[in-house]
Structure formats: structure tokens, C-alpha cells
């Protein structure tokens, strides 16, 4: 189940591995399950985990750096707008 969830998240966020999904199917999937602030939601979840248990975010790790940026600046660089070819959506 973890591998399936991870694979789906990677395809959703980066479009890597989505070659087998046709443009028409990609549109149907996105219409049914839009990515509503997916990156922000992931960053919030990661930072929340680190806030609850500091050992989950050691320095110089993705969780640690996101938490550090959020605490120092009030935001994390992953919150910045990014251009992602999310399953080749229009």
C-alpha cells in the first residue's frame, strides 16, 4: 500500500511515470481528483510532523529544512509557485 501511495504521489506531483496515462484519461483523473494545493498540503504535513517530534526533522534533511524555513521566515521555499507538468493537463 505504501508503494502504491508513493507512486501515485510521485506521478501526481512530478508527472514522472505518467507516460502510460493518455491525455484523455489524465483529464478525467484531474477533473475527478484535482490537486488542490498539493505541494502546500505536503509541506504543511511534513512541518507538522517535525513540530510534533523534532527528531523527524534533523538538520540538512528535507523535513528539517522545510521546518527551519517555516520557523525563520513563516514560509518554506516549497510554498513558492512551481511549474509542474501534472499529467500533461491543459
Produce the secondary structure layout.
Layout: H1 2-14, H2 23-32, H3 38-52, H4 62-73
Helix pairs in contact: 3-4
List keywords for this structure.
disordered C terminus, 0% strand, elongated, 90 residues, 4 helices, single chain, mainly alpha
Structural class: mainly alpha
The outline comes out as elongated
Instruction: Tally the beta strands.
Output: 0
Tell me, rounded to a whole number, the average pLDDT.
78
How much β-strand is present in the residues? under 5%
The major pleated sheet works out as: none
Q: What is the alpha-carbon Rg in Å?
A: 15 Å
Instruction: List segments where confidence is low: pLDDT < 50 over at least 5 consecutive residues.
Output: 79-90
**Overall tally of structural domains:** 1
Total helix count?
4
Order of helices and strands: HHHH
**How far apart are the termini?**
30 Å
Binned, the helix content reads 55-70%
Amino acid at each position: 500500500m505504501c508503494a502504491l501511495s508513493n507512486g501515485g504521489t510521485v506521478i501526481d506531483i512530478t508527472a514522472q511515470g505518467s507516460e502510460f496515462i493518455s491525455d484523455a484519461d489524465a483529464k478525467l483523473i484531474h477533473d475527478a481528483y484535482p490537486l488542490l494545493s498539493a505541494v502546500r498540503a505536503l509541506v504543511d504535513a511534513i512541518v507538522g510532523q517535525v513540530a510534533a517530534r523534532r527528531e523527524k526533522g534533523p538538520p540538512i534533511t528535507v523535513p528539517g529544512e522545510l521546518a527551519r524555513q517555516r520557523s525563520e521566515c513563516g514560509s518554506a521555499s516549497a510554498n513558492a509557485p512551481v511549474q509542474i507538468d501534472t499529467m500533461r493537463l491543459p
